[in-house]
Structure to design on (262 residues):
């Protein structure tokens, strides 16, 4: 029998990102960008404990992705995985961490889960997204994206669950309180994709079979969950696509749960 495959959003947004993936008895995190206290509370909310984690896969060294990595690794000896440039940055930022190299594109088996990273454009030292498979199902994490590149298009088209950045509304960003240099960084090729860019990517890459999409990494200042959802829904409808179950991952609290068999 195939192992149960599930995913949970513990936090998603500019102030912290953390997703839990479970395959059979194996539980891993992708990013731990919240405090150990918030992480413990979030895991407990879904019936998990940090002591059972088999690993943390880190996308990049920005604090909204690694805030809890040091405390988690030191308290529970949780193995941390990242590529080499990111490991160096993590060690500088987080202190002593039990971190091992996972090269980009390398497939790592951990229990029934198979984890692989792929490169994404962003201003981390060597930022990646992750694809996690279990049996015939897979999920793809794609957040912190400067622009929608070809490798990203290829990955997001395959996933049963796609966790896709929908960081900002362009107008809210333009008219909002951020200083010019920050607006420029967010819009730039090392920044984040907008609601519109996310919905265009869905239209281009995610036609056909049924799938779930979580809109993720929303900005607190430059976006609204309702606006992200409305933008994607309108674009999908305009293109006659009714194969996508859309949801928005909450920023500061545990929110979504995915089980492909339910
Ligand atoms: Zn980042
Ligand atoms: Zn981020």
């Amino acid at each position: 029998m195939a192992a149960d495959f599930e995913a949970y959003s513990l936090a998603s947004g500019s102030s912290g990102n953390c997703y839990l993936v479970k395959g059979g008895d194996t539980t891993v995190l992708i990013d731990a960008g919240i405090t150990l206290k918030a992480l413990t509370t979030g895991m407990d909310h879904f019936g998990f404990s940090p002591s059972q984690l088999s690993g943390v896969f880190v996308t990049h060294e920005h604090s909204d992705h690694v805030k809890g990595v040091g405390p988690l690794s030191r308290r529970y000896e949780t193995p941390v995985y990242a590529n080499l440039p990111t490991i160096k940055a993590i060690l500088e930022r987080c202190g002593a961490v039990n971190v091992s190299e996972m090269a980009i594109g390398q497939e790592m088996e951990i229990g029934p889960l198979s984890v692989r990273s792929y490169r994404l454009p962003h201003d981390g030292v060597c930022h990646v997204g992750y694809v996690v498979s279990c049996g015939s199902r897979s999920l793809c994490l794609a957040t912190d994206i400067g622009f929608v590149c070809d490798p990203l298009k290829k990955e997001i088209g395959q996933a049963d669950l796609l966790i896709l950045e929908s960081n900002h509304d362009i107008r809210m960003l333009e008219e909002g309180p951020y200083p010019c240099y920050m607006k420029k960084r967010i819009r730039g090729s090392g920044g984040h994709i907008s609601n519109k860019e996310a919905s265009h990517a869905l239209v281009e890459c995610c036609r056909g079979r049924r799938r779930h999409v979580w809109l993720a990494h929303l900005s607190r200042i430059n976006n609204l969950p309702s606006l992200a959802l409305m933008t994607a829904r309108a674009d999908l409808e305009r293109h006659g696509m009714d194969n996508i179950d859309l949801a928005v991952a909450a920023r500061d609290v545990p929110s979504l749960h995915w089980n492909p068999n339910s």
